[in-house]
Amino acid sequence: MKPTRPIKSISLFYRDDNPDAVQWAKKIGTWLRAKHPGVRIVTEKPQAVIVLGGDGTILAAAKKYRHTNAVILGLNMGHVGFLASVRKQNQFLPSLDQFVKGNYSIAKRMMLHASVLREGKTIFEALSLNDIALQNILGIVEIRVTIEGHHVQYIRGSGVLVSTATGSTAYNLSAHGPIVMPNIKCLIITEIMDHNIPTPSIVVKHNKRVHLRITSFRKRGLLSVSKTGEAVDVVLVSDGETIFPLQKKDEIIVRRSSRLVQFAELEKNYFFRSLQEKFAFE
Q1: DSSP 167-183
Q2: Average pLDDT of every residue of the chain
Q3: What are the residue numbers of the active site?
Q4: How many Cβ atoms sit within 10 Å of the Cβ of residue 271?
Q5: What pTM was estimated for this model as a whole?
Q6: What is the DSSP letter of 68?
Q7: Any idea which fold 9-104+266-279 has?
Q8: Which residue(s) pair with 227 in the sheet?
Q9: Higher confidence at residue 238 or residue 228?
Q10: Fewer CB within 10 Å: N-end or C-end of the chain?
Q11: pLDDT one-digit tens code per residue, 178-214
Q12: Domain boundaries, the chain
């Protein structure tokens, strides 16, 4: 593997409620100070971010450090691990040693930008690495999907999902969407529990804009936003965390973001190895 820049400053990112990650953070800190004393552990503007956790933690780190252009190295301590650079704990320190020395390559991952328009005005925006979902969690919503003025889907079901190639192994996979190699820049449109005749997922080029229009749903107000108490039925969900309530006739535009997230890759064909392990391919 062609060497990249050696690492000079690192931030450690993990969830405090994950005791294994807390212990590993201490262990890595001690190891770095002994093995690579020239590497600084910092809290702001790091060259690299070492993430201890699952895919959800890696997503959170990617969003937090998206303005720094830092390289993300994920050490898998979760259940899925598609976003992680290293899957097995006995490989954490040897892999970190190679990473700090610059023996890694950089994979730049595309992000999505979603805008919610109500009566022609933008009222909400979200940034996502994995996916943007429109959902009526407890009922049916009707959504018209348009690309460049062409109606490509009319969904009457639980909702619709627009994901990146990175997100193709997340919610998109659970919704029976296609798995796409993460270095392919595209948008994947997948229906969620459509009550009409099922339509296949659509993979479109990264420079296209996907227009989603909420045409109808039954207002029941069985759910509410915890912060405001507002009754909701249909919501926009970004990467499973950021939630925004939607109304009839709202239009959501999903496009490629100008921002990219940099992930470290330590071995060739890592994506295919992940598929082999997760699906027990022979």
Answers
A1: GGGTHHHHTTPPP--TT
A2: 91
A3: 55
A4: 17
A5: 0.89
A6: T
A7: Rossmann fold (3.40.50)
A8: none
A9: 238
A10: C
A11: 999 988 999 999 999 999 888 899 999 999 999 999 9
A12: 9-104+266-279, 111-258
